[in-house]
Structures are given as C-alpha cells and as structure tokens.
Design goal:
Layout: H1 2-9, E1 12-18, H2 25-35, H3 44-50, H4 56-67, H5 73-90, E2 92-99, H6 101-105, H7 111-129, E3 132-140, H8 145-155, E4 164-168, H9 180-188, E5 192-197, H10 204-213, E6 217-220, H11 228-237, E7 240-243, H12 245-250, H13 262-268, E8 271-274, H14 286-296, H15 301-313, H16 319-323
Parallel strand pairs: 1-2, 2-3, 3-4, 4-5, 5-6, 6-7, 7-8
Bound molecules: adenine (ADE) and zinc ion (ZN).
Residues 16, 18, 168, 196, 219, 277 line the site of zinc ion.
Function: Catalyzes the hydrolytic deamination of adenine to hypoxanthine. Plays an important role in the purine salvage pathway and in nitrogen catabolism.
Binding site for substrate: 278
Cofactor: Zn(2+)
Length: 326
C-alpha cells in the first residue's frame, strides 16, 4: 500500500479544523460526568449511532449539544491536547484551529477560559513536540452581526493569540453580506480573514465572500465548480480552498467519495488542500481523509504531494517555514 505509506510519511498542515469538532465521545462522557451536564446518550455506541447526518444542520444540532460538556479552562486544555495527540498520529506539524467562542460564552463560559485552555495546550504541543499552530476565531453566522461585533470586542484583549477570524455554522440563508461590516472591522484590527463559503450554499456565497469580506482563504468552496467565471478567478488568484472530504460525504454534499470534485478542482489548477473539519464526528482524522480519497478517486502520488504542499502554501506561516515543506 504505497499511497497510505506516502500519506503517513508526509508532514502535513491542518488548516480547517474546528476544535469543538475534535471532541471524541469518550472525552464527552468523561466531561459530562465531571461537570454534571446531561447528554442525550446512554453509551459511546449510542453516540456513534447518532452521528448519522442528512445535511449540515443535522450535524450542527448534535455538535452544539456535545460542546455543552466543555465548561472549564482545563476542559479546553484536555480537548486541545487530545487533538494534539491526533496530530502526532497523523504527522501534522502545523495546525490552524478554529474555535467558536459564541458557543461557549452564550452558556456563561468565559472567553478567557476557552482561549486560555486552547492556548496552553498549543504551547505544550510546541515545546514538547515542535508542532506549530495558530488560532482562528469563528463567528456563528446563524447569530446576528451585532453578536459578532460583541465577540470581536471580547476578543481584542487576546488579539495576539488569535491570528484571524472566520465564519461558520448554518450557511444557507446566512450569506457573507450579513457580516461585511464586522469583517471590515476585524481587518482593521489586523486579523486575517477566512470564511466557510460554498459548502452547502451555491457559488454566489463564494463570490460574496471574496467581494464583500476580502477573505484570504475559502473554507470548503466546493460549489465553485458550478461557475466558470468563479473557477477562472480562483485559478488566477490561487485563492486557497480548504476542502474537507469526510465532512462533505458525512453531510451529504456529495453522495460518495467517487463523486467528490476535489480531483477536478485540482486538475483545473486551483489551490486546494485537504483538511478534516470535525474529525470526531466525521469518522477520521487527516490521513483518513486522504486515504478515503485515494481509495475512490484516481489521485496520483504527485496529486497527493500537491494537495499536501498546498496546505503549507496556504498556511498563515512565514516564508522560511513554508520553504521547509515546499
Ligand atoms: N462548524 C463546524 N463544522 C462546520 C462546517 N462544516 N460548516 C459550517 N460550520 C461548521
Ligand atoms: Zn468547517
């Protein structure tokens, strides 16, 4: 099995990973018990049975319920450290993790506990294992822009710990235009900008994210294939697309891996890379995303290397660090 060996052997960059989406059922149960939080499952098997999604929203409902067990700074440390152990298994040497502050601050968990726990685990990952990382704060698009502005204000004391802002949650009906002003404000504060666009919603959301939010990367973006104009634009600008194959299958964006369009996007010349989104919910971490693609699409070894290198090209790291992996 040359391909799995190659995938395992390549150092990789993770650019699209929701830390709350790395909460494994075992840790969910342990924290539920410790914090006295009710969860609607009797057993680990019961949880895994519930992870059968029909679309993005059916996943989000379960994902936000799971996040309720996260209460203290230590919980966020343990969550992040468990993910770092997965980075070691998957040869991820650089990771840019999303977190959703509003999911926690809405429940009364202080912003400082969330960022403090994540940051401490990432610092240990660097000192103990040399893993580099940064943190991206996402606004929940099902909430208002005023809520996003309040969250941006709350984040300012931690500005040095947060490299950028993103946009996630329920996409259809919550277009990028709803957040144009808060993204402009975030840019003025020096944050880098990314946004989920064209995951479930059509390609017009990708155009809007480019035109109105001025993003540096598109998260998902797989619906771009339905617009020739947009495809040309993405190719010309080499705009990064952080594609998450397992997620797209589990959330029924594509029926099966052999229907996934990542090979078409790559062959067209787009800057696409592979990431894991919410690996505890979508049946596997980064290497598994690659092997699932390789099992069902005619990806060559060169294609795999290009996808991995694109991850480093698109990362928020300096040129010296990029050069080490390109
Ligand atoms: N939050 C966590 N995962 C997400 C996804 N795939 N799309 C939108 N919001 C998310
Ligand atoms: Zn995502």
């Amino acid at each position: 099995h040359a391909m799995p060996d190659l995938i395992r052997a390549l150092p990789k960059a993770e650019l699209h990973l929701h830390i709350e989406g790395s909460l494994e059922p075992e840790l969910m149960f342990r924290l539920a018990k410790k914090n006295n939080v009710a969860i609607p499952y009797d057993s680990i098997e019961d949880v895994r049975r519930a992870y059968n999604f029909s679309n993005l929203q059916s996943f989000l409902d379960i994902y936000y319920a799971g996040a309720n067990v996260l209460q203290t700074q230590d919980d966020f440390y343990d969550l992040t450290w468990a993910y770092i152990e997965k980075c070691l298994e998957n040869n991820i040497v650089h990771t840019e993790i999303f977190f959703d502050p509003q999911t926690h601050t809405e429940r009364g968990v202080p912003f400082s506990a969330v960022i403090g726990g994540i940051k401490a685990a990432l610092a240990d990952a660097h000192s103990q294992h040399g893993i580099t990382s940064c943190i991206i704060m996402c606004f929940l698009r099902h909430l208002s822009e005023a809520d996003a502005f309040a969250t941006l204000e709350e984040a300012l004391p931690y500005k040095d710990d947060i490299i950028g802002v993103g946009l996630d949650s329920s996409e259809v009906g919550n277009p990028p235009s709803k957040f144009a002003a808060v993204f402009k404000a975030a840019a003025e504060h020096g944050f880098k900008l990314v946004a989920h666009a064209g995951e479930e919603a059509d390609f017009s959301y990708i155009n809007e994210a480019l035109d109105l939010l001025n993003i540096h990367r598109i998260d998902h973006g797989v619906q771009s294939i339905h617009s020739d104009t947009l495809m040309l634009r993405l190719k010309d600008t080499q705009m990064p697309l952080t594609v998450c194959p397992n997620s797209n299958i589990e959330l029924r964006v594509f029926d099966h891996y052999d229907q996934h369009n990542i090979k078409d996007l790559l062959d067209y010349g787009l800057n696409v890379s592979v990431h894991s989104d919410d690996p505890a919910y979508f049946k596997g971490y980064l290497n598994q995303n690659f092997t699932n693609l390789c099992d069902h699409l005619p990806l060559s070894a060169d294609d795999v290397v290009t996808l991995v290198k694109n991850g480093f090209r698109s990362a928020f790291i300096d040129d010296a660090q990029k050069a080490a992996y390109l």
